[in-house]
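hi! just following up on the protien thing from before. the input was this:
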Amino acid sequence: MNKTMLIFAALLISTGAFADDKDNDKDKAFAKDKVCDNGTLTGQYTYEVSGVNSFPLPAVGLVTRSTHVVGQVLFDGEGHADFIGFGSAAGHVVDKTGTGTYVVNPDCTAEGTMNWDGPVAQTSTFNIMLDQIANNPTTRNAYHAYVLVTDDVGSSASGSLTRIERFPK
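and the predicted 3d structure came back as:
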């Protein structure tokens, strides 16, 4: 390869890298504009959280064990959510279902509650940090988020949400 070809190749590579930086600047500007709302968190997501689960046992008291929960959640874009999944509890798999409410703040954070069904009904609170949001002004869907879940008994777990329809048509 001659010097002219090498210089041309280097120019193309550096131009491509610079173009990528412009795209990243657009994403950063989007987050700075604080344009998130409940509609940003719309659709079906998978979730995975791990942490500790605290629960009272008769004649034993408060027990704390590690936990892992996976499942799906459907956010309606208006502040309501439906959950379904599986969790580990003392070495057993337990079905987890429930409903919840949420509010997405303009700074692309969200908070809400989950009301879990089952033999031991439980309410958890969650905080979400949306970190991948479509740059399309008509959809602005969040595609990934980090989540922190707690309850008033002392359980705490963290994990992530990923939108199932990642590349809408």
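The longest strand covers residues 42-57.
Residues 3-31 have pLDDT under 50 and may be disordered.
cheers
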